[in-house]
Amino acid sequence: MTAHDPDASIDRPDRDQEFGGEETDTTDEPGQEPAPQAPPEMEVDELDADILEAALDPDDVAEEFDEDSEDDASEASEESAETEGEATDGDSPGDAPKPKGGKSTRRSSTSIDDEGEPGDPATKVPGTKTMLGALQWAFQDEEGVSLELLERYAEHARLLLEKNKTLNLTAIQAPKEVAAKHYLDCWRVTRLVPLIAKRIMDLGAGAGFPGIPIALAEPNCSVILVDSTRKKVEFLQSCIDTLEIPNARAVWARAEDHLAVEKVDIVMARAVSSVRENVRTVRKVRQTFQDFVMLKGKSWSREVRAAERETERLGFHLDTVWEHELPDEMGARAILVYRAPGGAGY
């Protein structure tokens, strides 16, 4: 895992590979008119931030976490499960107050959804030993991981995949991929971001990532899992009750509405939206928390550049970037830490 100076990371020379295209062969053929010359390619630094953002298809943001799925349909359903919501009404679960409705958008954190999308009845739920073995494989090079923690991760994974038969929560279903892409990816946050005695809000919690793995790994923090889809929140609370996680609770609400009534230290987002859209979501409540931690895929630097104008306007400062690799070439990941306007000392 590598920590970076954010400014140095943003301007690194490999960006030409992300934005550049192949040169067009303009050699004249005999008997043909010369082909028109293509306009000179703009340097990345000359590109407007809005153009960069437009190049970031929102579907690509969440799909980075499913880039090794078997087909494109699986990738699309993964993003839908974790990030999308439809504006419908329903009864609030348990003690959770019914959240206020809002303008319908494609993000689950900013729209209210009662039912959620249908699941995949063909989901295969691995046995406890199989799931535990996959987790031991994924965490074999990590230090300070107890067998008890992996057993609890395995129990949550089985609850997740069982529920995935009726409620679309994840397209990642192979045990090793579940272990590495979900649990290892989220667990590493606890080793890189100070969380002891912190109040954390998981924005658009979906299937419970990163909130539940973090709450299980760091019992000395408090985790609020917020999602705008009622059935997902009911699933999350059932997991919290079954696993007996005393430092976690699930809330059915829009993230920005909940932050207006309850302050936290850290807001976390994983596979929700682009950096620019994430900071826009919390723009009206950005004084209520200190840090915004985003778990991103390999295109994190492109997102950061595209969001520079918006983050600066709203007062967010990119403080730290940690890059790390998942095992067995399952993909590059990055943890971005933005200091929010409400952060001490900023």
Describe this structure in words.
- By secondary structure, this protein is of the alpha/beta class.
- It has a single domain (54-339), classed as Vaccinia Virus protein VP39 (Rossmann fold, 3-Layer(aba) Sandwich), CATH 3.40.50.
- Helix content is 37%, strand content 14%.
- It has an eight-stranded mixed beta sheet, sandwiched between helices.
- Helix 13 runs parallel beside helix 14 (300-314).
Give the topology:
Blueprint: E1 2-4, H1 6-10, H2 15-19, H3 49-55, H4 58-63, H5 72-83, H6 128-138, H7 147-163, H8 175-187, H9 189-192, E2 199-203, H10 211-217, E3 222-227, H11 230-243, E4 248-252, H12 255-259, E5 266-270, H13 275-281, E6 291-296, H14 300-314, E7 317-325, E8 332-339
Parallel strand pairs: 2-3, 2-5, 3-4, 5-6
Antiparallel strand pairs: 1-7, 6-8, 7-8
Helix pairs in contact: 3-14, 6-7, 6-8, 13-14
What is the tally of helical segments? Answer: 14
Beta-sheet strand percentage? 5-15%
Order of helices and strands: EHHHHHHHHHEHEHEHEHEHEE
Largest sheet: 8 strands, mixed
CATH architecture: 3-Layer(aba) Sandwich
Mean pLDDT across all residues, rounded? Answer: 79
Which descriptors would you attach to this protein?
346 residues; Rossmann fold; 14% strand
Concise structural overview:
This protein has helices spanning 6-10, 15-19, 49-55, 58-63, 72-83, 128-138, 147-163, 175-187, 189-192, 211-217, 230-243, 255-259, 275-281, 300-314, and strands at residues 2-4, 199-203, 222-227, 248-252, 266-270, 291-296, 317-325, 332-339.
